[in-house]
Automatic annotation (TrEMBL):
SUPFAM superfamilies xref list: FAD/NAD(P)-binding domain
Region (Disordered): 316-356, 432-454
UniProt xrefs under InterPro entries: FAD-bd, FAD-dep_Monooxygenase_BioMet, FAD/NAD-bd_sf
Biased composition (Basic and acidic residues): 331-344, 445-454
Domain FAD-binding: 4-168, 267-302
Identification of the protein by name: 2-polyprenyl-6-methoxyphenol hydroxylase-like FAD-dependent oxidoreductase
Source species of the chain: Nonomuraea polychroma
Biased segments, Gly residues type: 345-356
UniProtKB keywords: Monooxygenase, Oxidoreductase
């Protein structure tokens, strides 16, 4: 059986493990932490990621956790709406609204779906030989046909594979996150923008409220009492923000400086290694897409990696897998010509591999990893950039510039009532690839490319 070693047991790593395992891979996920212990916060799982989770049989369970209702959107510090929509409108447009859930719950669902035998906790990876597919750990070396590097924003694997890349840069904002008991407060999902400040409020299951906030600060700023800092900034904002902050347990508030890529990687793979999630494309949280993109990555990678132990791939030994699930030349994500073994576009890529005991020889491996880069690099780079441009809008502090920003957003919303949703079409209309018979029609998606939106 073909073996995949996944480095990192975060959302990207666990989802990759589940998706590969469903395709018959022998999967080991290595996580250096002794237990899966995500930061205590909420997480938005949007329509695109829900569709990806559907392919793993997990989407419907996640949907039952949704608590979002009423108007959602962006407000000013005094509570006036700048732009808003409703979960129903999102559902009508994308077939799903967003699910706001505890990060810990998602991790639990993913860890359960992966299976305890596949997850090795407390195992740190110290290095990778990308060409040979060898993962060095404190407990010895592991050989793999595919290595998935899901080791997060400060990925050591990425630094080893792409030493020339500058890495993530500080976005200029720091972010607080916290979980607060709802009490008898009336909570709606909103995000409010002030002068260089953002405050978000979201109801969760178990009568909890997830709050997040950002401010423009130098990287590495240290505070003695994070709740006091929040009260100082947001204590006179619209309801229920002050009451929530007063009810917060200071020990339940965490803060991280926010980093993002200014420069995309040249590829998401090298040798036998594929990068997923924040290791590949760290982004600011302004679109709530970091984890969603990690989930998309995982599902696309597993789809392209195929079914190594299945008859289908053995029958097509040495042939590369296309984005529509068929075999033969590898197509670009835009449905155009082939991709060469390094993942660069070109018309002449063929499926010749050096074979192997199963369907993915070295050549085939390079082919599907090239297809993975082609499918994911452009899309995620755009989302990284869009997240950063919203981040820039929230960083504005000059009162005139703030007034102009708010006026511009509300004017655009008035002239185009579905603006808030429509602006997200490209992100949320994404659909996961559909596996089709080797020689049959591409999929039930007609001529449309499987990675394009409906
Ligand atoms: C304030 C904030 C709010 C956010 N809100 C949202 C949201 O609402 N929706 C959304 O989609 N995204 C959101 N995100 C982004 C999201 O949290 C990340 O994009 C996502 O968690 C990335 O997952 P990952 O698996 O790639 O990386 P990580 O979650 O960082 O996981 C990496 C894992 O690898 C392990 N690891 C690292 N090095 C090694 C090693 N050498 N050996 C073994 N294990 C190793 C780490 O311990 C860790 O468990 C938010 C981010 C922030 C900062």
């Amino acid at each position: 059986m073909a073996r995949a070693v996944v480095i990192g047991g975060g959302i990207g790593g666990l989802t990759s493990g589940i998706a590969l395992r469903r395709n018959g891979w022998d999967v080991t996920v290595l996580e250096r932490a002794p237990k899966i212990d995500p930061v205590g916060s909420g997480l938005a799982i949007a329509a695109n990621a829900l569709k990806a989770l559907d392919t793993l049989g997990l989407g419907d369970h996640i949907r039952t956790l949704s608590r979002i209702q009423g108007q959602v959107g962006i407000r000013r510090a005094d509570g006036r709406w700048l732009v808003h929509t409703t979960p129903d409108a999102a559902e009508a447009r994308y077939g799903d609204s967003v699910v706001l859930m505890l990060r810990a719950t998602l991790m639990e669902v993913l860890a359960d779906a992966l299976g305890a035998d596949q997850l090795r906790l407390g195992v740190g990876v110290s290095g990778v030989d990308a060409e040979e597919g060898i993962v060095h750990t404190e407990d010895g070396d592991l050989g793999a046909d595919l290595v998935v590097a899901a080791d997060g924003i400060h990925s050591k694997v990425r630094q080893t594979l792409f030493p020339e890349h500058p890495g993530p840069t500080y976005s200029g904002v720091t972010a607080w996150r916290g979980l607060i008991p709802r009490g008898d407060l009336d909570i709606r999902s909103t995000e409010s923008w002030g002068k260089g400040l953002v405050f978000g409020v979201t109801p969760l299951a178990h009568d909890l409220v997830y709050v997040y906030a950002t401010d423009v600060l130098p990287a590495g700023t240290v505070f003695g009492d994070e709740r006091e800092e929040l009260l100082r900034r947001f204590g006179d904002w619209h309801d229920p923000i002050p009451a929530l902050l007063r009810a917060a347990d200071p020990g339940m508030i965490i803060r991280n400086d926010v980093y993002s890529f200014d420069t995309p990687l040249p590829a998401f793979h090298r040798g036998k290694v594929a990068l997923v999630g924040d290791a590949a494309h760290p982004m600011t949280p302004n679109l709530g897409q970091g984890a969603c993109q990690a989930i998309e990555d995982a599902v696309v990678l597993a789809h392209l990696a195929g079914f190594p132990a299945g008859e289908e791939d053995i029958a097509h030994n040495g042939k590369e897998r296309t984005l529509d699930g068929t075999h033969g030349g590898v197509r670009r994500a835009d449905g155009g010509g082939g991709i060469d073994r390094e993942g660069r576009g070109g018309a002449g890529a063929s499926g010749e591999g050096d074979g192997g005991e199963w369907g993915h020889g070295r050549g085939a491996l390079a082919g599907y990893l090239g297809a993975y880069t082609a499918a994911r690099l452009g899309r995620t780079s755009k989302i990284v950039q869009r997240s950063m441009s919203i981040c820039r809008m929230t960083k504005v502090r000059n009162p005139v510039a703030v007034w102009l920003r708010d006026f511009g957003v509300s004017l655009a919303a008035r002239s185009m009532p579905d603006m808030m949703l429509r602006s997200m079409d490209e992100v949320l209309r994404w659909r996961p690839p559909v596996t089709a018979p080797a020689s049959g029609p591409a999929s039930d998606m007609g001529d449309r490319h499987p990675l394009q939106g409906r």
